[in-house]
Amino acid sequence: MTTAFARITLLSLVMGLSACAVHRPEPAPLPPIPPSQPSPTPSPTPSPGKPSIPAKPAKPIPRTSASFAPPPGGNSHWDAKMGVYVLDDQTNTFYRQRTYYRWNNGWSRSISPNGPWEETDIHGVPGGLGRQFGQ
To answer: How far apart are CA 122 and CA 124, in angstroms?
Structure first.
């Protein structure tokens, strides 16, 4: 009985130690990547008497604002100059921060694009919107 116990113990010990000794070799490290050199680009030669002005790519018009959420369920686009969303399907109707604004020979505002509308003055509309309509 002790011989069987000793054999099992020895076999378990050998198996456990052999698992520690068997391992995969680490892959060889890759050579370092040389720094990329920018390819030289020919610069246009400016015309005599005219300074060279690089052309700027046209920026796409943003459909949304990074700061303000668009109106719920309405087709609109963000107008950065006025600082409001312009409703595409309602003339002179705008939106910002849960409020709709409408210009109709004076300002009015509402919590719905369909009204009811409450009259307000230039102080009741976002600054860029008021400046755009010059009131």
So the answer is: 5
Q: What are phi and psi of 89, to 5 degrees?
A: -105, 10
CA separation for the pair 70, 2 (Å, rounded): 82
Position 84, amino acid:
V
CA angle 127, 131, 135 (to 5 degrees): 110
pLDDT digits (tens, 9 = 90+) for 37-57: 555 555 555 555 655 566 665
Burial class (CB in 10 A: 0-12, 13-18, 19+), 78: buried
Decide: 75 and 89 in contact? Cβ < 8 Å.
yes
Displacement of CA 114 from its chain's centroid (Å): 31
pTM greater than 0.90 (yes/no): no
Contact 127, 83 (CB under 8 A): yes
